[in-house]
Amino acid sequence: MSPNNINLNSNYHKLLCYQKSVVVYDLTYHFCSRFIDKHDRTYDQMIQAARSGKQNIVEGYGDLATSKEMGIKLFNVARASLMELAEDYSDYLRVRGLRRWESNSQEMATMTQLGATHNDPQYFVSLAENRSDEIIANMALVLIRQAQSLLCKYVDKVSENFATEGGFREQMTSIRLKNRQ
């Protein structure tokens, strides 16, 4: 029995939630660079929220090796950072009188499908290149929702794994007890 029930041959780059968070970060950076004044506090806030979403997945994944609890806490910090970012995009649309896509709109359906089939940040940045702030903000909101959903699924998987196999401490205790026998 290994004291680490994380596949050592895998890494956080393979996590879909991480890949989607990179897309969100790059698209947010592009959006802010085009539409928000660099001296506006919102510029830094949005980029930092997107960065925090991505970086906390990295840190949480690393912490899973010895503490499922800490890993899950950091994944939830990532999710909260993405919630904050979604609120910034929603505020941007609202205060400027721009339209937020309806859940049953063709734009929402198309973007949801694109988000489900693509995880290349450059793909989305190139899509955004000649689009309006309204369209890019809505694109980002769809991608953020997808990243949050993927994070929730991953946390559920880690939690189930913990429930069946325990964490690092439980596995070390089991190894110690077997060695004593």
Structure report:
The structure is a single chain. The protein has helices at about 15-35, 40-65, 70-95, 105-115, 120-130, 135-165, 170-180. The longest helix has about 35 residues, at about 135-165. It has one domain (about 10-180). About 75% of the residues lie in helices and about 0% in strands. By secondary structure, the protein is mainly alpha-helical. Residues about 1-10 have low confidence and may be disordered. The chain is elongated, with a radius of gyration of 19 Å.
Domain count: the total is: 1
- Terminal CA distance reads 15 Å
Q: Shape, please?
A: elongated
Structural class: mainly alpha
Using only C-alpha atoms, the radius of gyration works out to 19 Å
The percent of residues in helical segments reads over 70%
Give the helices and strands as they follow along the chain.
Answer: HHHHHHH
Question: What's a quick, concise take on this entry?
Answer:
The chain has 181 residues and is an all-alpha fold.
Write a concise keyword list for the protein shown above.
0% strand, mainly alpha, 76% helix, 181 residues, 7 helices
Question: What secondary-structure arrangement, pairings included, does this model have?
Answer:
Blueprint: H1 16-35, H2 41-63, H3 68-95, H4 106-117, H5 121-128, H6 133-165, H7 168-180
Helix pairs in contact: 1-2, 1-5, 1-6, 2-3, 3-6, 4-6
